[in-house]
Design brief:
6 helices; 17% strand
Length: 194
């Protein structure tokens, strides 16, 4: 059974399904790069003051990596859900499980952050994206904001603290909701590196 996380900080008020960054092969490969992954807050937190989250996130990783039966998918009592507050898509099955969660919970906007553009392209070749599923490309390059890539609804960019413009830095997600609503009017999100 997958476990929902109660988030804190800027994410307070937005529940999330998180997975274990420290065991995700994609994350491990990216950790030593000069991308945003090289400054990964999740790796840092899960190896220090959030070590206690690792077992639950690892159980989620194991569950999401295999097909979840429809009857075992959660029924959510939330308007918004984040996928990957910690973690990254593990494989296509993980993405399809998130797709199914969105289908089972049409009242909930399900937002997925991912750098795995190849999985999203492959997904779109076979599946129709539910209207309440929001795909956000997490741009790995720092200080090089981009427009929304094909197949995605939004893009999340990171810049150094002194770079402008920024439209996310210092905001609480639950008060902004730019990432959680397709009709927010903001599809290119820019935040300072943490």
């Amino acid at each position: 059974m997958i476990q929902l996380s109660k988030m804190s900080g800027k994410l307070k008020g937005i529940p999330a399904y998180n997975t274990n960054t420290t065991s995700n092969e994609f994350c491990i490969r990216q950790k030593e790069t000069d991308t945003i992954c090289g400054k990964c807050y999740s790796h840092r937190m899960l190896s220090t003051f959030r070590k206690n989250c690792v077992p639950a996130f690892e159980r989620n990783s194991e569950a999401f990596a295999k097909p979840i039966r429809w009857d075992d998918l959660p029924v959510l009592n939330h308007a918004f859900l984040r996928i990957n507050g910690h973690g990254e898509l593990i494989n296509m099955t993980h993405l399809l499980n998130c797709h199914a969660i969105a289908l089972k919970n049409p009242h909930c906007n399900v937002a997925i952050w991912t750098k795995r553009a190849e999985l999203i392209r492959k997904y779109h070749k076979t599946y129709k994206q539910p209207s309440n599923l929001i795909l956000i490309f997490s741009n790995p390059r720092i200080d090089k904001p981009i427009a929304v890539p094909r197949g995605f609804d939004k893009v999340f960019n990171n810049v150094q603290v002194d770079k402008t413009p920024q439209n996310c830095t210092g905001k609480k997600c639950i008060e902004c909701l730019a990432c959680y609503r397709k009709d927010s009017g903001t599809d290119v999100i820019v935040e300072a590196v943490k």
